[in-house]
Amino acid sequence: MAMRTAFVGLGVMGFPMAGHLVDAGHEVTVYNRTPARAEAWVAEHGGRAAVTPAAAAEGAEFVFLCVGDDPDVRAVTTGDGGVLETMAAGAVLVDHTTASADVAREVYAAAKSQGVGFVDGPISGGQAGAENGVLTVMCGGDQVDFDRVAPVIDAYSRACTLLGESGSGQLCKMVNQISIAGVLQGLSEGIDFAVRAGLDVDKVVDTISKGAAGSWQMENRATTMAAEQFDFGFALDWMRKDLGICLAEGDRVGASLPVTALVDQFYARLQRQGHGRWDTSALISLLQD
User: Fold this and answer.
1) CA–CA distance, 208 with 218 (Å, rounded to integer)
2) Residue-wise pLDDT tens digits, 202-246
3) CATH 3.40.50.720 occupies which residues in the chain?
């Protein structure tokens, strides 16, 4: 069934995600902090653009967010002109931002106080996953709200799972980022070793990717890493933001994250060198210096 929806945040992920909602037959109103981006989306996909998050959410049965960080989430939900100013009881709010579990719980409480459902649903799959509609969505919240919104999320996902109560989606995304950080550092060291040892990197990757060392990162980043190509993909500025959330939560729950902390510092070095917009696979450049 066609639903009235709103999408707030049209970055490299949100822009195609909102487009998939249109393709699935839903009515979509968008908001973006930079109006020109919203106007470009409307020119490509139809629908309409609103001047505030609240205006976008008015009358919507489902409202989706994909913004930058905790302060951005608060601004577009509980802040002046935020979506909760106009969302009606019975509507469901979904936050696809990678943010803290604390802000997820804050927004959950604010939404519930006015009869609005809330699901924290951070995503994985990168820009390509968003463009191809095959994202993985990790959710936290109430079963009833998840059951209502999951069929709509299907428009841009290949997997959508409820992990537990509010905040669980964000905690799962932290596990995802912790794992990726370690894999990328190991892959960087492996490829650099292969180059220095005089091996054909393409043949090495083709061989070991079929065994226990295989990973998404190896299949999608190994060749570009060896070629020193980093001007695409998930910016390491954003990965540092994510790892900061992971390390803070690790301190809170008493989890030891030594590799994550080390990789975070490697990314900090790249930022100081002016490479914050490079892909996360740029870790290998520190070994090539």
Assistant:
1) 9
2) 999 999 999 999 999 999 999 999 999 999 989 999 999 999 999
3) 4-165
The CATH fold assigned to 4-165 is Rossmann fold (3.40.50)
Point out the residues that are catalytic.
173
Question: 């919240």: which residue's tokens?
Answer: 141
- The predicted model scores a pTM of 0.95
Return the CATH architecture of domain 171-288. Orthogonal Bundle (1.10)
SS3 annotation, 241-263: HHHHHHHHHHHHHCCCCHHHHHH
Contact 53, 81 (CB under 8 A): yes
